[in-house]
Amino acid sequence: MEQQVLDLLVATLDPSGPIRNDAERHLEQLYTNEAFPISLVSIVSHKSVLLQHRQAALLSLKKLVLKTWSPSLEEFEGPNTLSDATKDQLRESVLSIATAIDEERKIVGAASYVVSKIASADFPEQWPTLLPTLLNLVPQADPSQLHGVLVVLGNLVEDGFDEEQFSSSAIDLVKCIYNVAVDGEKKWTARALAVSIFRACFDTMELVYQNNKASVKQFMQEASDAWSPFFIEVLKMPMPYMPSEEEENQGTPGGPNVINWRGVIALKTQVVKALDKIHNMFPHLLSARTLELFSTIWESLQAHLGPYHTMYTGDEQRQGRMEDADRLPYTLDFLIIEELDYIQTLLNTTTIKWELDAQLTPKSMASGNVTWIMQILAVAVGYSQILTEDAELWEVDVNIFLSEETSETANYSARNACGGLVGKLCSYKWPVIEILLGFSKSVFDDGSSSFKAKEAVLYVVKQVLDEISDYDTKIGPDLANAYLDFARMAMQDGENELLRARGFIVAGALIRTAGEALHGLAPDFALQSLKAIGEDESEVVKVSCLRVLQGYLKILPPARAQEFQVQTVATISNFLSSHDLSEISDSEDLLDTLVETLRDAIMTDPSLCLEHPALDVLFTMASFGSRSWTTTMLVNETFESVTSTISSQGPESYARLCAKVLPSLTGALDVGDMTQENSLSDVAVSLLSTLAEYGSVPLPEGFVATLLPKLYRLLFLDLEFSVHQSATITIKYILVHDATQIFAWRDPETGKEGLEIVLLIIDRLLGPNVDDSSAAEVGGLAVELVEKAGAEKLGPYLMQLLQVVAIRLSTAERANFIQNLVLVFARLSLTNAKDVLDFLAQVQVDGAHGGSGLEVVMRKWLENSVNFSGYDAIRQNVIALTNIYKLHDERLANIQTKGDLVVQNSTHIKTRSQAKREPDQFSVIPVPLKLTKVLVQELALPSPTTPGFSHGLGKKAKESSSSDEDDEWEDEPTVLDLGAPTTRQDLMGHMDESRWNTRQTDDDTQKYLVEFFNNVSNEPGFQELYHSLTDEEREKLHKMNDTNQVNGNGQVPAQ
After folding, report:
1. Is the dihedral angle over the CA atoms 495, 499, 505, 507 positive or is it negative?
2. Buried b (16+ CB within 10 A) or exposed e, 337-365
3. What is the pTM of this model?
4. Which residues belong to any copy of the Importin N-terminal domain (predicted)?
5. Is the peptide bond before 240 cis (omega within 30 degrees of 0)?
6. Model confidence over 230-264: pLDDT tens digits?
């Protein structure tokens, strides 16, 4: 069978898609064959087989294990047909491969992953020998075998152990890897792997700590006491000889210099990462060594600065951000980033804060004794210098520069880390900007300073100014002017574009942060920016000025607003004209910057844009950025601001706006262009919905004649769901603002009246051929039509319309679509609840979800009510349901619907595959009880705006602060570790609706609900329902009067 399996594995690597898919399908069909996994292991074990084919065998084995090994694995699909004997053989065979001598690293890594997955299901019950076997191998393993053992141990710690399993083996495991880490005879990478495993232990240890604090404290204290001296020894270890560029380019693994250099960096990096993990999770463990650690890391950063500049900011272009096959970083830039981040962590500790506070007393400041902060800033400037590689990339692609400037890049560098470090200094309100001035002056006055050094100074200054601005504080005019001199020097530098760009950026930040003292300079600097956008040869300078211009436009004197709006629009238009717009369409960051700048120019006085081509320029950018979600959002926000402002000025202004924009927008809706994916068409429909939303009453003459025929045709084409939604919303708002114009209009081509066209549109959207997403807004359109036209105009079509809504509701699945359709009946129930129920009782819905219309609608309504969103929707829904309740209609008592979740007595987390096999079970209850439960759930819990909330919060805080045990352990607050399991648990806990329910009703709705329950509380029917509620629901009713402070004499039944 081995040859058959090997042939299939080879076929899975074939470049032909059909051949690959066929081979993978045949492999999956072999999953139930006991010999199949044994054959895979045999293929992997034969070193004569090509490496890529052995890897393919391991990949196939991994898939088999994940899908068929155990139901406890999240990806399990079944069936679990492997015998215990086969599983025993596979466990030992795969472990042997993962820990084999002289095995390929890629094979070891893949095999160890399979081992960890099997272990997560079988250890220790079905595989009790696993950990003892690994731990016994460590002391006697040769270097290649030790590597495999450590990789398996690392995967086990990260993915294979739960808290109980880890607790029973933690002491032996930590002792074993400690012996590897401190053994100077072992390879650097083996020692680094050992430290990495120790760091991974902390994630699981933190979970154990939640349930067993005392023993974990003791264990972690002993471990910390043992490991800390070793960590400090590694940190103080001098760096070996730095290999030359030629030596590093010789390939992997390289000569002895390269191996030594990379190995030391790998070990140091893992040590810093481990220390950072300890300080963030268990800060008390390292309190006594905080000062020593800070000094050691700081000396290390100072020592690394020279090699860092040589390798990354000078003429050499060493490869950075490199990891080996075991994901161990081994380049200097990675180590620098970890050290800078750890310095931030240490700045959180009270020990370091006290030391810095002592240095920043008035006496120390007067004597100039601010050594630490000055050194931190100097080093931050040093590591903020632009990398040679980045400078070249920015010149080629200005989008990369913009993503760095807006901190929207995944490329976290030492420069970014320095920005965070400076921000941390500012967060403690230390006089960072004042201390930085002297260092900045020394750099700019030094004739030998490179442009990168000057640019780095200004970069750090900008980070400080941003922090000051975030804290809503200002800097003095004298200080601002001193820094402004440096910015001017940079702006006038004719040799380097990056320094010039930074000068413009910092000048803008200074004028903004200095407050009104420098606002008078804004017009002059804005003009210089406009000039640079038009004349500077550098794209980096141009886009920097575009971004800076946004800040100037917000603080310009009103008297200059019109002048600068016109100039900015012209400048952006010229910029677009001088570039290939097809290239700009692929430059999302640049396009977003252009739209943002145009938006800020327009918003200086939106009414002025009717006098010049600002909106035409906006639509041009929209057409080329239509594939970008952010660009489209910015365009929509800008147009909404313009439309709302102009509409508020009266019908005449709104009519002028329509006259200006409708030709462009409707021109994009030509049916031929739509089917050819006209770039502006999707955006145009969305903009039209905004235009209609803020329409005047009545709408301008001819508005319906211009739009309705085009919207009608769009809605009968198979287009993106967003187009259908926006078109439906547009028609709805036309009805809201001027139904008369729709009803009076007749299509000259077809002779159909406006009312008939709207009915045809609703019928089309509610039909079976339109999906939920495309029809999501039809409910709002339908209810507007019913309310505006009334039974008199609709005649027999009214009942047909409501019947179609009920039928479509029976099959609706998307939450927003369900809400939209339910609100049709809810809106009608506000005034005619009985008529609605009578009508629904006469409707018959066919299909799997069928029954009477009353059954279908009430079930769907009540099962989804708690998911409704929007103040108006929730208010209308609540009032409609109370109106239905007050009818006490006996027909509702005969309808059964989904009740409460039946809680399973299990402590295990249900995986996705298990949830599919074992869906949640719910009780079945009558509609009146479900309706009551829904209304009780709509009662708001105490919130920050609810009386009693602050009192409760204060009590909780007081209780928290009185916990001596926790205070003693936690020491001081630290940086949030998003990778920690308990952090993930807390974040998931925040998603609990009972704690953070953003779906809130307004105060009037709450008062209405309380009054409703008080009024019905003594009714015999309610007494019966009350006793069928859960304890939590009854408790909520008892507390509602205190929570909402509603005056009333009604009483809720006593418990």
Report:
1. negative
2. bbbbbbbbbbbbbebbeeebeebbeeeee
3. 0.81
4. 23-100
5. no
6. 999 999 999 999 998 888 877 656 678 899 999 99
